[in-house]
Amino acid sequence: MPLDERIITKAIIDRYFEKIRGILNLDAAIVGAGPAGLVAGYCLASAGKKVAVFERKLSVGGGMWGGGMLFNEIVVQEEACHVLEELGVSTRLYQEGYYTADAVETASTLTSRCVKAGAPIFNALSVEDVVMRPEGIVGLVVNWTAVNMAGLHVDPLAIRARAVIDATGHDTEVVSVVQKKVPGRLKTPSGSLEGEKSMWSDEAERLTLENTRDVFPGLFVAGMAANATFGGPRMGPIFGGMLLSGKKVAELVFAYLESLP
Ligand code: 48H
Ligand code: FE2
Fold first, then answer.
1. pLDDT digits over 215-237, tens only?
2. Ligand 1: does its nearest atom lie under 6 Å from the Cβ of 223?
3. pTM to 2 decimals?
4. Is the predicted ipTM greater than 0.95, yes or no?
5. Ligand 1: does its nearest atom lie under 6 Å from the Cβ of 29?
6. Does ligand 1 lie within 6 Å of residue 56's CB atom?
7. How far apart are CA 104 and CA 99, in angstroms?
8. What is the rounded CA–CA span in Å between residue 75 and residue 87?
9. pLDDT tens string 131-140
10. Ligand 1, closest atom to CA 236?
11. Of 119, 132, 159, which is closest to residue 143 (Cα–Cα)?
């Protein structure tokens, strides 16, 4: 059968618009497709919630691909291995308590499981603001990353979501926007973003999980963004905290959604 460029073009346009029309009213919008965001997307979609992930870059997976300093292996502590096993990532015991996984296998498998569970990922889309109402955050404001990179003055579009998860890693971009728009109102000790502290792997992994929580009405933080929001230290290329944080935020958001009228 001869191929027709017009049909190829129409197929892409039709399918993309079908996909994006389907996510204009979400239960949960996840910002950032790193390990925390991907696990959260997988868990919430598996639990039947309508969820989508928005990623600024063309590539998804966040800081996982390069392992530590471009040595593409990641370390995962024993307590978090079950998350990788559940998602089908192979782990290898290194020494008691410490496991390793191939960084490329981990990034690609988490991505695949997230999408196949029903959480589509919109890449090359940057979240630049939130939709705010007196009761809290009710959505995201998004634009093409290419528009931002080109420095074009083009207004964004908006997506409704009953809950938003900031999983933007070190940048903590959604929380930063909220802090700028409504200063001093975050549920942190100072009311503002506390900022990430220097490396202390053990404390950081513990605190990542503790700091995974709501930070403003309708807004939850996960992964590295949780640590930056509440002032936890960084941990280096150990990823168990990110995976467990993704799982925990999904549980918190699920319970929050169930509690809404
Ligand atoms: C859309 C955005 C925006 C935006 C950012 O950095 P990530 O991998 O984040 P986590 O928290 O899942 O994992 C952190 C981990 O990778 C890490 O850096 C560790 C463990 N560091 C320890 C240390 O000591 O350094 O992924 C975040 C994703 C990225 O892909 C960004 O491109 C994306 O979020 N993102 N997407 N709109 N405004 N901002
Ligand atoms: Fe990092």
1. 999 999 999 999 999 999 999 99
2. yes
3. 0.98
4. yes
5. no
6. yes
7. 16
8. 16
9. 999 999 999 9
10. 24
11. 159
